[in-house]
Amino acid sequence: MKFKDKVVLVTGAAQGIGKATALKFAQEGAKVVTVDIKLELMDEVSSEIKELGAELLTYGVNVVNREQIQDMVSDVVAKWGKIDILVNNAGITADSQLTKMEEDAFDKVIAVNLKGVYNCTQIVVPVMVENGGGVILNASSVVGLYGNFGQTNYAATKFGVIGMTKTWAKELGKKGIRVNAVAPGFIGTPMVSKMPDKVIDMMKGKSPLNRLGTPEDIANAYAFLASDEAGFITGTTLSVDGGVVL
């Protein structure tokens, strides 16, 4: 039980990587706070966490809305006294080539994927400082390392997340807070599974391992970086991509 008595907050926890991450921490003994704008989709992950015997709090929160985040964090602290680990997983896409991208699509992706990470972290950090430390984990992407055709907005956010990760690692280290990012490659999420077979086969073919990653692959990376085993790791971006960018 690697995270016994730890309080872990996971945004975008309703499905995919967020769901797998919440379940991973629950399996390892954590008290889990699941957060998603789509509260109606949280029943399945909530049931699975409860079946593991883990304590759970669930909130329907939009990471763009600072008031909702503040109310949630205050409620978690009132009930459990602390937040030890924050996993900034919530994110969206709205893909289009630069010359065709609508301003609204750019703004929405920036708001959720970049400003949302900033919002959650800025509001949670004082709780961690008061508690003597913590771990912040941010969702980047291989797109945030190498760019990708048709993803100007998404790439900008994922590059930005890496910049914030490095900056916060420098600012918060003396306060006992480690900050790292994970950069997933092609992952078999529910969204990807709806794509045409030829697209999925193309994704698999880009990896030397000839498969998509699983949400659990990313959850395992988050769990490692949150653990004491990674106690001297901060400011890094861990690529979990099956070698897709070699």
UniProtKB/TrEMBL annotation:
Residues 6-185 form the Ketoreductase domain. CDD domains: BKR_SDR_c. Coiled coil: none annotated. The keyword Oxidoreductase applies. It holds the Pfam family adh_short_C2. PROSITE patterns: ADH_SHORT. Homotetramer. This is 3-oxoacyl-[acyl-carrier-protein] reductase. The gene is fabG.
